[in-house]
Every structure is written in C-alpha cells, then in structure tokens.
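Q: Could you fold this chain for me?
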Amino acid sequence: MRFKDKVVFITGGSKGLGKALTLKFLEEGAEVGVVGRDGNSLEKLVRESGENSGLAVYEGDISDYKRMEEIVDDFVGRKKRVDILVNNAGIVNTLLPAERLKKEDFDRTIDVNLKGTFYVTQLFGKKMIEQGGGRIINVSSQAGLFGEKGFLPYALSKGAIILMTRILAHEWGKYGVTLCSVAPGFVKGGMNENLIKKDIFVQFLSKRNPLLRMAEVSEFVSLILFLSSEDARYINGETIVLDGGMTGYTMEPLLDFIASLKKEK
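A: Sure. Below is the predicted structure, expressed as structure tokens.
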C-alpha cells in the first residue's frame, strides 16, 4: 500500500476519471476526500467504496470560493493535514468555432477549469505551507500545449494550469510543497464517455495517435499515482504528457470531423 496513512483530496472525484482515482487511492491505503457537484454520484461512490473506507465526500462547485473554503477547513480540520491534492475537476466547452462561442460558455469554462482550480490550489496550498509540505497534481490537457480548433476556452484554461503549476512550483518549493501537471490526450473515459459510445469517434481519435488507440483510464490513474508517490518527489514544476506521442503532429481537428459527418447525412 503505497499511500497508507496519506491524506488525499480529489476534486471531481465522484465520476469518470476522478472516481477511478478515488477508488485506487483508497485501495492503496489512503484516507481520501472528494468534492463533486452531483449528490447522487457522491452517494453512489460512498456505497461502492465500502462502509469502512473512511471516504469523506462533499457536494460543491470548485468555482464557488466560499464553499470550497468551508470544505477545505472541514476536511483538514478532521484529518489534521493534507498530503496530496489532485485537481481533477474540469469541464469542456461546447465545440464551436471561436466566432460562435457564447459568452456564458466561455465564462463558465474559465470559471471552473482555471479559477476553480486556482481557488482549491490556494486554499489547500496554505494548509500545506503551514504543515511544512505537500504534493499537488494538476490535470491539464494536451490541448493546453498546442490548442485545438473548437476548444478555445478549454485549451486556454488548461494551458494556464500548466503555467500556474510551474509558477507555484517555484514559489512554494521552499516550503516543501511541490507541484506537477498531467496533460492527457484523449482518454477512453471521463468527459469522453459519451463520445466513445460511437465507434466512428473511437476510430477517428485512435487514427490520430501513433499508437493507434486512445489512453486507457488505468494508464491515466497509474501516472497520477506515480506522480503522487515518494518515487516522484524530486519531479517539480513539470508537465507530463500522456498522449501516446500525439502532441505536435498535424491532425484533422475533431470539430472538422464532426462537421464532415453532418454534411454526409
């Protein structure tokens, strides 16, 4: 059990990739807390994790600073410390060309992915500084490195998370607080769950990748756990790309592929 007696908090930890992370950290002996917006998903997670797991669940939106302040104070007050924070929560905007994006969609994506991630990082970061150390893993995206047509607010928010990771690694390293970010490509789960229900999209996304497949959820989880472990304690300020070698290659944008399917109908 790599994380026995470690205290971990995961945002967006009740569904998709976050749920997989939560269950794996529990399996590895950690004391885990999660925040999510969907009360039903949180209740289901508690049942799946088992009565004796000690899982702490909170309903809330990471873009709500006051609510997150309450959650952080309660969680750390109960556990007396926090060793690892995984900023997993995020949303993707409606895929549209930039000139057709709605202000509400742009603002909501930035509010959750960037502002919310910073709020949680700052609140837990203060606790980590006070206790003399901690580890923060931010989930960014391959789109945050090179962008992609149709994903403007999402890509902007994820690119900013990469920069935030490096800045805070420099600022907080002297306090024993280290940070890394992970930039996944297309993972076969999480926010892609609806997309991968159609084989045509799985085939399209797989063809964009040198390995000719999407990432498995287990591969994403394994990387997060490695970066959270003592084996990675000297990795600080870095962004680890998990995309099978896709980043940097010229590819047909997903938005254009969707448009081509509409024309064929």
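A (continued): The chain has nine helices and seven strands.
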